[in-house]
Amino acid sequence: MIRGARRGYPLAGTVDVVVIGAGHAGLAMSRCLSEGSIDHVVLERGGIANSWRHERWDSLVRLTANWQSRLPGYCYTGLEPDGYMTMLEVVEFIGRYARIIGAPVRTETTVMSVSVADDGYHVVTDHGQWRCRAVVIASGAHNIPAVPPLCAALPRSLRALTTKDYRNPGQLDDRGVLVVGASATGLQLADEIHRSGRQVTLAVGEHIRMPRVYRGLDIQWWLDAVGILDERYDEVDDIVRARRVPSPQLIGTPQRSTLDLNTLTEAGVNIVGRLVGINDGKAQFSGSLRNHCAMADLKLGRLLETIDAWAQRSGKSGEVAAPERFAATRVEDAPCLSLDLSSGRIGTVIWATGFRPDYQWLHVPALDRKGLLRHDGGIVDMPGLYVLGLNFMRRRKSSFMHGAEDDVRDLSAQLAAYLRNAVSRRAMRAAG
Ligand SMILES: Cc1cc2nc3c(=O)[nH]c(=O)nc-3n(C[C@H](O)[C@H](O)[C@H](O)COP(=O)(O)OP(=O)(O)OC[C@H]3O[C@@H](n4cnc5c(N)ncnc54)[C@H](O)[C@@H]3O)c2cc1C
To answer: How far is the CA of 25 from the centre of ligand 1 (A)?
Structure first.
């Protein structure tokens, strides 16, 4: 039994590296570790691509294009590079990757504790305990729905769902729905539920507006070509703020249509400001809707200017449609500032207010006051500990599938160097 091992958890193995999570990020790391002949295991509490299997709603289609599905040694080779994958297709894509790279994955194995041990870490799972010199946390950035504390004031007659619980409109009763949050998820759910014939109110705070197609090309193509997705964490002025920016209002459809607040207003969705309080059964919305929309329009305008300037410089301008500008977001003269949640007309509130990672099992002094990891571009503030897949972790694209490749290559090189140096340190210690 290894030193410090807990009773009841036999030693499952000793490896150089334990990778936690078999989503695309953990598998990409596994592939790079294998390339460097580094002995490792990938521990996964469910099946491969577990989050895509169990934590997304039924109709979700990825907002990134198929050509962006690339991982170390693997990429999309299908017939629709400009299409968008359904959840089933994503699960198949990641599952095939795991098979091709022969990743040493232990599925149905939940990591319950990671703690420091001599020269490394103890990793306790529900199927035994691992001893390792380094740990890569690839357990995802979207583990726990970030529901605001004011949810406690919701009238009991209402059903509250997070976007992890929501599957399809069939789950809801026929009454109206309040969707809180207007990032990609909030907009898509508002749209789907409204189409199902229910009245929808959408509470809108800070958001990122984007057209699906610009000058005839997918906006993701432009973001990639201009270099915006590659922007590094050490190049931006305020990385703390950059990491909090919500996901862009995009949807993947065969028609490549744009979904924004104007589309929803036209369809009949009731657009209101940020939810700021619930008092006596009444939801109260901020009067800042106009400002938030104006800010999103302004940022969109700046993005399009950057794209146009790049297109001009690179000579792309001659090959694509002319620059366009989009109508400002329409805001009612007097948007509604409150909604009676106890009148019986609203049946459900859906919190589309984002997520945070879950590190309850991480027993090392590397978490800040908010329970988030202290790290420098994925290199955690503890020797031999690395993280993957967080928002803007090393690059703007870090939390997306196409962001894993560059991050994993950087971090696996760092990790290999760490292991080599650890061997030299041990040899020096042994030599006295
Ligand atoms: C609604 C939504 C839509 C998205 N759309 C896109 C998109 O269109 N394009 C795109 O590129 N990205 C998208 N993303 C972002 C991102 O690509 C996904 O969240 C992706 O799943 C992240 O991959 P990952 O490998 O970092 O984490 P995950 O896929 O979440 O993998 C983490 C794995 O770790 C496992 N795990 C967690 N805790 C433990 C534990 N204690 N023990 C063992 N295993 C554990 C989980 O079961 C899971 O399998 C979306 C995210 C969300 C939430």
So the answer is: 8
CA distance 404 to 390: 10
Q: List C-alpha distances in Å: 409 to 36, 107, 112.
A: 11, 24, 27
pLDDT more than 70, % of the chain: 98
**Cβ atoms of residues 213 and 258 within 8 Å:** yes
Confidence of residue 4 (pLDDT cuts 50, 70, 90): very low
185 CB near ligand 1 (under 6 Å)? yes
Band the pLDDT of 429: cuts 50, 70, 90: confident
Tell me how far apart the alpha carbons of residues 138 and 28 are, in angstroms, rounded to a whole number. Answer: 10
| 114 C-beta closer than 6 A to ligand 1 | no
CATH number of the structural domain 2-143+357-431: 3.50.50.60
pLDDT in tens, 323-365: 999 999 999 988 999 999 999 999 999 999 999 999 999 999 9
CATH 3.50.50.60 residue ranges of the chain are 2-143+357-431, 146-351
Measured from the CB, is residue 393 less than 6 Å from ligand 1?
Answer: no
Write out pLDDT tens, residues 30-89.
Answer: 999 999 999 999 999 999 999 999 999 999 999 999 999 999 999 999 999 999 999 999
What would be the CATH architecture of the domain defined by 146-351? Answer: 3-Layer(bba) Sandwich (3.50)
Is 196's C-beta closer than 6 angstroms to any atom of ligand 1? no
Ligand 1, atom 13: closest residue by C-alpha? 400
The pTM of this model reads: 0.95
Q: Please spell the DSSP secondary structure of 162-210, one letter per residue.
A: ETTT---GGGS-SSEEEEE--SHHHHHHHHHHHHTT--EEEE--S--B-
- Ligand 1 contacts CB of residue 107 (under 6 A): no
Centroid of ligand 1 to alpha carbon of 39 (angstroms) = 24
Average pLDDT over the chain, rounded to whole?
95
Decide: residue 173, CB within 10 A, 0-12 exposed, 13-18 middle, 19+ buried: exposed
Nearest atom of ligand 1 to the alpha carbon of 142: 53
Distance of CA 164 from the midpoint of ligand 1 (Å): 12
Tell me, using a 6 A CB cutoff, whether residue 273 lines ligand 1.
no
